[in-house]
Write a structure and sequence with these properties.
The chain is of the alpha+beta class. It folds into two domains: about 1-80, 3-Layer(aba) Sandwich (Glutaredoxin); about 90-195, Up-down Bundle (Glutathione S-transferase Yfyf (Class Pi), Chain A, domain 2). About 50% of the residues lie in helices and about 10% in strands. The chain is built from nine helices and four strands; from the N terminus they run βαβαββααααααα. It has helices at about 10-20, 45-50, 65-75, 90-105, 110-115, 120-145, 155-170, 180-185, 190-195; strands at about 1-5, 25-30, 55-60, 60-65. A four-stranded mixed sheet has the order 2-1-3-4, with helices on one face. Helix 1 (about 10-20) packs antiparallel against helix 7, helix 5 packs across helix 6 (about 120-145) and helix 7 (about 155-170) crosses helix 8. The longest helix has 23 residues, at about 120-145. The protein starts with a strand and ends in a 15-residue tail after the last helix. The mean pLDDT is about 95. Its EC number is 2.5.1.18, 5.2.1.2. Pfam families: GST_C_3, GST_N_2. It comes from Apaloderma vittatum.
Length: about 210
């Protein structure tokens, strides 16, 4: 497998966690979203992903983009350890939380949007994350055990940790979100979340390395 990734991309981080959890080794091709006006806009990368976004994963003779689609494929083809349980209610809750983050929070504060916001980008990102986390905290109070849904790591957790990292980067006050904070802390103790962390990637700038 070949993963096209950017160290600080939360979507890429989700996939890196899934690959680590499932013990899938891969070659990493860094795509710098800032350098040279954004390497994702190169003609070469456009043939990999016409949406000109990371991540993209070449695996089993196909190329996939969109982090949740990639994670679903890994789950279908390499089901151990499971990231979606058999129980349909828990599966639905996990997908709901994953979509809440991947559709309802992250796209509103990603690089493309923030560029358009200019000087107001930090305030905009804080507002998007805060409104999303207010809802997410309520949801997790009903679904959480040790992790987002019960006591097993799931696809929801793969979305949560990168989004909390973004929140901290934009200096969002996390005090109102004790459930989110507790789950994030527990997940960051797991090896798969540590090795995939933005501070430990081949393309991480020296000053941001762990």
């Amino acid at each position: 497998p070949v993963l096209y990734s950017y160290f600080r991309s939360s979507c890429s981080w989700r996939v890196r966690i899934a690959l680590a959890l499932k013990g899938i080794s891969y070659d990493l091709v860094p795509v710098n979203l800032v350098k040279d006006g954004g390497q994702q806009f190169s003609a070469e990368f456009k043939t990999v992903n016409p949406m000109q976004q990371v991540p993209a994963l070449k695996i089993d003779g196909i190329t996939l983009s969109q982090s949740l689609a990639i994670i679903h494929y890994l789950e279908d083809t390499r089901p151990n350890p499971r990231l979606l349980p058999q129980d349909p209610k828990k599966r639905a809750q996990i997908r709901m939380i994953a979509d809440h983050i991947a559709s309802g929070i992250q796209p509103l504060q990603n690089l493309v949007v923030l560029k358009k916001m200019g000087e107001k980008k930090t305030e905009w990102a804080q507002n998007c994350i805060t409104s999303g986390f207010q809802a997410l905290e309520q949801i997790l109070q009903h679904t959480a055990g040790r992790y987002c849904v019960g006591d097993e790591v799931s696809m929801a957790d793969l979305c949560l940790v990168p989004q909390v990292f973004n929140a901290e980067r934009f200096k969002v006050n996390m005090d109102p979100y004790p459930t989110i904070t507790r789950i994030n802390k527990a997940l960051l103790e797991l090896e798969a979340f540590r090795v995939s962390h933005p501070s430990r990637q081949p393309d991480t700038p020296a000053e941001l390395r762990a």
